[in-house]
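Sanity check record (used in CI):
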Amino acid sequence: MQKVIIDTDPGLGIREADFDDGVALLLALKSPQIDVIGITTVHGNVPVSYGTRNVLRLLHLMQRNVKVAQGAHRPIILDYPGKVKRPDREIEGIFQFIPSMEDNLISTFAPQFIVDTANKSEDKIIIVGIGPLTNIALSLIINPGIKEKIEKIIIMGGAAFYPGNVTPVAEFNIWMDPEAAEVVFSSGLPIVMVGLNVTQKVGFTKKDFSLLKNKIDPLSKLFYLSAVTWLDYLKKMQNTRECYIHDALAVGYLLDEKLISTRQAYVSIETKGALTRGQTVIDTQGISGKRPNAQVCMEIDKKRFREMVIDCLEKL
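Expected output for Nucleoside hydrolase:
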């Protein structure tokens, strides 16, 4: 069984925050294929303290005992570029009767937790990074030796030959801390990059979540209300009736590599460009003269991924 640490910034249950991290955690925690040995939280969709609370509440509802370590509250070098909206309002009534599992929260700083857990593990671990890469980068800076204990890092971030979702060229997770992303992509570790070019090929609508509408258990209500609230926000702001569950696809790849085809490439992160900061620059032709440092996801089995998500929701 694969031992996995998930590094995340979940907005589950928060207004105007994406809930895709929540679906990713649900897929991972429900799967018999992997052993989630820790969840670390990072700044991103919401302030890190909110993300930590959301994880603890989700664990309570799922009755899972997994260690949670809170991590970085800001990028490693520069503060947020421009004005970053940080939603912090809970969906009304959604957590009213849901306590968190405070016993799961440990005092260790998330990057140190990653170092300690990797060093103590008899087996190599897999890290799934579905938020800004600050915690993961700091763990590699604190102790570069942990690279020997990491099998690979699966990252939801970037975009391969595809527009960004926060600037014309940058994806949110990478844009939030491009210096951290550069540390990770330069680490020499095996990396799988699950970018917008695949995550935005499968849209979900309110109809997809209607199977949860009449369920009375708190876990189903949490996901249903989070989904419809996010979709209402997207309809208002972007005039779209569908959403993308970006982060869940990174876990989906972990569970079933046949979901996505990949291509070896050298990926560099733009950290200085006034217009291109946070862009993932993909070299599949060897033009840079550098050896590939990542498996870049290129095509997705849309039907297979949709069935994976719907099946997981049906079993709540």
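Residues 203 and 278 are 24 Å apart (CA to CA). If this sentence no longer matches the regenerated tokens, the check is flagged for review.
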